Amino acid sequence: MGESLTEQCRVEVEGPRVVNFFSRRRSNDVTGLWMSALGVVGLALNLRAYDFVSQEIRAAEDPEFETFYTKNILLNEGIRAWMAAQDQPHENLIFPEEVLPRGNAL
């Protein structure tokens, strides 16, 4: 009966076991964050692939439909033609206005 109240209520905690428990919990949380990040990236890639495939299917059915791929080709060719005179001044290139891209007309 000579023990004080703090000595009676003290609970022995084993250090390494508690540290190990909390470090496992933290690694589970971090693993969960990484898995959710991978899931979001996977979803984005899946949606992008779906968009690409659906465009290609529509382009196969409708010859007037422009896909990202064909728009990119048109844009690159248009910029190349538009900038040719400035890029190659030694060639003295002169293009008629009809063949140069104007405004948004792709």
From TrEMBL:
GO biological process annotation, one example: photosynthetic electron transport in photosystem II
Gene Ontology cellular component annotations, sorted alphabetically: chloroplast thylakoid membrane; photosystem II
Annotated transmembrane regions: none
InterPro entries: D1/D2 (IPR055266), Photo_II_D1/D2_sf (IPR036854)
Name of the protein: Photosystem II D2 protein
Organism in which the protein naturally occurs: Mikania micrantha
